[in-house]
Design goal:
336 residues; mainly alpha; Cytochrome Bc1 Complex, Chain D, domain 2; 2 domains; two-stranded antiparallel sheet
């Protein structure tokens, strides 16, 4: 490993130690295949808070020109991403990274591609303040929402205050904790339903957990180790995006980006932090060739030498096996 001990301690700190189980058992029950849902002790899940967070999530008035909402870049119809290589904000400004899906983000302690924010509460206010995305200061967005009677009444009911930035963060985070993807054919297959996966997907599953070594990083119930790896993407550029290094300043983190979840991955194309691959077949080909060599390339990246059939079977597993029929296609709510 190329990371210092303090970074490893941060990455491996159990969520259980910092988070308390949700006090609402119904909201805290995840789909099959996922572990019990937890929430911060100071932000327990409640139905009213989730509903408020959903309204804020879909409301374009959180942006300066009323054109961008959280859902603009993290759209339920597009795998809770945006279907484009990069995220686009106010005045048509285009960012430098793709919009990662928020599905199952509730289980991740570090947020964004580079892990710069702690938990969903730490992530929620970032896009609002980003000049490329929503371009609002916290004082401005709080004043703007406080002028809307419906929001002011909802905040008083949920938080016993007028609109505050802390309340905005907690409400949006609470809603995002309900965006869960599980109960895929893979989960039913593991539970004993041997008809849940086709023969091709079953062969692909063996490649995934075997020769392809995909599960060395895409592991656990959310199919991500929640860590950061340099797989070579973008490192061929003269001035590459340094990813996690910009946060930690640790040499081994140069070019490292967060391992994406693979649940419902077929819905959230294009792929990688720069959206360079349009299909999962392209992604598999990239890994098969061993990525792009650079000084900080992860030691787990090397030529796999998969056959054409193995590649096709692997894609079948990723699409057929990990695509859920109970996908959270949440409709926008009525706004205040």
């Amino acid at each position: 490993m190329r990371r210092c001990l303090c970074c490893l301690v941060l990455l491996l700190t159990p969520v259980i130690g910092r988070f308390a189980a949700s006090s609402d058992s119904q909201l805290g029950t995840p789909p099959r295949g996922l572990k019990p849902l937890t929430a911060p002790a100071d932000n327990p899940l409640t139905a009213e808070k989730v509903e408020l967070g959903k309204q804020l999530y879909f409301d374009k008035r959180l942006s300066r020109d009323d054109t961008i909402s959280c859902a603009s870049c993290h759209d339920p119809k597009k795998g809770w991403s945006n279907g484009e290589a990069f995220a686009t904000g106010v005045r048509g400004q285009v960012g430098g990274r793709s919009a990662p899906t928020i599905m199952n983000a509730a289980y991740s302690e570090l947020q964004f591609w580079d892990g710069r924010a702690l938990a969903l509460e730490g992530q929620a206010l970032g896009p609002i303040q980003n000049p490329i995305e929503m371009d609002m200061s916290l004082d401005e967005v709080v004043a703007k929402l406080n002028k809307i009677d419906g929001y002011r009444a909802a905040f008083r009911k949920v938080f016993n205050t007028d609109v505050t930035s802390d309340g905005i963060a907690k409400a949006i985070a609470s809603f995002e904790r309900t965006v869960l993807s599980g109960d895929a054919p893979y989960d039913r297959f593991k539970a004993g339903d041997k008809s849940a996966l086709s023969e091709s997907a079953q062969r692909g599953m063996k490649v995934f957990f075997g020769k392809g070594q995909c599960s060395s990083c895409h592991t656990g119930h959310t199919f991500t180790d929640l860590s950061f790896h340099n797989i070579g993407v973008g490192q061929e550029k003269e001035k590459p995006d340094l990813g996690r290094y910009e946060v930690t300043k640790v040499l081994g983190d140069k070019g490292g980006f967060k391992t994406a979840t693979l649940r419902d991955i077929s819905r959230s194309a294009p792929y990688m932090h720069d959206g360079r691959f349009k299909t999962l077949a392209e992604v598999v080909d990239y890994y098969d060739k061993g990525g792009f060599n650079n000084p900080q390339l992860d030691e787990g990246i090397f030529a796999l030498k998969l056959t054409t059939q193995e590649k096709a079977d692997l894609v079948a597993f990723l699409t057929e096996g990990l695509t859920s029929a109970s996908y959270p296609d949440i409709a926008p709510p009525k706004l205040p």
